[in-house]
Amino acid sequence: MISFGGLLFFGALVALANVLGGLLLTRPRTTLRDAHVLRYLIALGAGFMLAAIFLEILPEVVRLWGAGQDDISHAVLGAMTLLLLGYLLIHLFEHTIAPHFHFGEETHTEAMLQPKAAYAAIAGLSIHTFFDGVSVAAAFLVNFKAGLLVFVAVLLHKVPEGFTAASIMLAAGRSPRRALLATLIIGAATLGGVLCVALLQARLDVAVMYALPFSAGVTLYVAASDLIPEVNHMERKNPLVSIVVFAGVALFYLLHRLLES
């Protein structure tokens, strides 16, 4: 099992990726080239995340909940309930607390003129990123291979997340410094998710059994309800973006096979 220090290391890496996304937008002489790269990164991350959920996380959830049980379908009912709750939680936050943001550069400035709307959106993104950290930590506590695959899946969409947070603040008329601070906040939320799972696991061995399916539901929402619709929107201008989703799935499969061998 990975050490506490190892969890912090991987958690810090994904948190720093949020800050990197903000730097792409707030640094001097920012060009649109960064936005074009992010489109492909969003598509790649969507494919990789979907593959990680269905081919790595869910099989591990079934294994954990079905161990020693005669009726596996009944045993994993609780796990699937937690997955659904995780999915619905993010849906609730996105459509009540922070209904105005989407992944990528925020272009609907008229919806973000009120600072309260921008801060609400950052709060919603922080919920996302907290469970990013939960997903990474829970997967690593199951086994290192699962943790590494989930780490890569989360890492691929952390830069667009940071970019989104910074663009929301800039669209609300905040300064580049405030925009960068927003990325630090959502990065800290990621690290907070890692710490919560690590501390709970140290005191309660079964914590990962509950954290893994719940965080899988959150990750599924990000991939299927946030990233894929964004890809569908972007493909109107560039059909190649949708092909990159399949490249993300292929990348997961390749990395999965390499780790197994």
General description of the model:
This protein is mainly α and 261 residues long. The protein has one domain (4-23, 40-260). Helix content is 82%, strand content 0%. The chain contains 9 helices and no strands. It has helices at residues 4-26, 33-66, 72-75, 77-96, 115-142, 144-171, 176-203, 207-234, 240-260. Helix 2 (33-66) runs antiparallel to helix 8 (207-234), helix 5 (115-142) packs antiparallel against helix 6 (144-171) and helix 6 (144-171) packs antiparallel against helix 7. The radius of gyration is 18 Å and the shape is globular.
What is the mean pLDDT? 85
Low-confidence stretches: 107-113
Beta-strand percentage?
under 5%
Q: What is the string of helix and strand elements? A: HHHHHHHHH
Which descriptor suits the 3D outline?
Answer: globular
* Tally of separate domains: 1
Counting DSSP H or I runs of 4 or more residues, the number of helices is 9
Using the CA coordinates, give the radius of gyration: 18 Å
Biggest beta sheet attributes: none
Distance between the termini: 19 Å
The residue fraction in helices comes out at over 70%
What is the structural class?
mainly alpha
Keywords summarizing the entry:
261 residues; mainly alpha; globular
Q: Outline of this structure?
A:
The chain has 261 residues and is an all-alpha fold.
Q: In terms of topology, how is this protein built?
A:
Elements: H1 4-26, H2 33-66, H3 72-75, H4 77-96, H5 115-142, H6 144-171, H7 176-203, H8 207-234, H9 240-260
Helix pairs in contact: 1-5, 1-6, 1-7, 2-6, 2-8, 2-9, 4-8, 5-6, 5-7, 5-8, 6-7
